[in-house]
């Protein structure tokens, strides 16, 4: 499960910075590489900061594994993928550059979904094909 950041609760406790560490299952529909799936949950390490204007900055990293058929030769392939997470949340509706939040709680689900999508490779290659392409 993806946690939320309780902005109002943090402000009431005078806690404007924090960290989150958790895992979640990624949506398999995010993958458009044939015969490949997530072979581990996505682990996230995030830090957040609540600004004076109640905007929330979130930064960190994600990591997950993929397994399936090599996109080139169809042999068994696997890869450990890492990616960066970076986003800003503003009260109300997002404006295309920032995500929005309502009710004093920031839902990280959309930011994490986007971060997983940006981290995904275009294809998955086995060790042999990966070495062949380097030549």
In short:
The protein is an alpha+beta fold and 135 residues long. It has 3 helices and 8 strands.
Sum up the structure in keywords.
single chain; 135 residues; alpha+beta; six-stranded mixed β-sheet; two-stranded antiparallel ribbon; 19% helix; elongated
Account of the 3D structure:
The chain is an alpha+beta fold and 135 residues long. The chain has one domain (4-134). It contains 3 helices and 8 strands. The protein has helices at 7-12, 109-119, 127-134, and strands spanning 4-6, 17-24, 36-38, 42-50, 56-69, 76-91, 99-101, 105-107. The strands form 2 sheets. Strands 2, 3, 4, 5, 6 and 7 form a 6-stranded mixed sheet that branches. Strands 1-8 form a two-stranded antiparallel sheet. Strand 4 and strand 5 (56-69) form a beta hairpin. The radius of gyration is 18 Å and the shape is elongated.
């Amino acid at each position: 499960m993806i946690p939320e950041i309780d902005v109002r609760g943090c402000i009431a406790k005078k806690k404007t910075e924090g960290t989150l560490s958790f895992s979640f299952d990624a949506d398999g529909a995010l993958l458009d590489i044939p015969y490949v799936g997530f072979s581990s949950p996505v682990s996230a390490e995030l830090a957040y900061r609540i600004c004076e204007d109640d905007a929330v900055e979130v930064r960190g990293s994600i990591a997950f594994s993929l397994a399936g058929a090599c996109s080139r030769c169809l042999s068994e392939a696997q890869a450990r993928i890492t990616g960066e997470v970076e986003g800003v949340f503003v009260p109300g509706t997002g404006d295309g550059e920032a995500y929005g939040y309502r009710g004093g709680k920031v839902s990280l689900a959309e930011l994490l979904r986007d971060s997983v999508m940006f981290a995904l490779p275009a294809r998955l290659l086995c060790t042999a094909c990966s070495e062949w392409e380097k030549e």
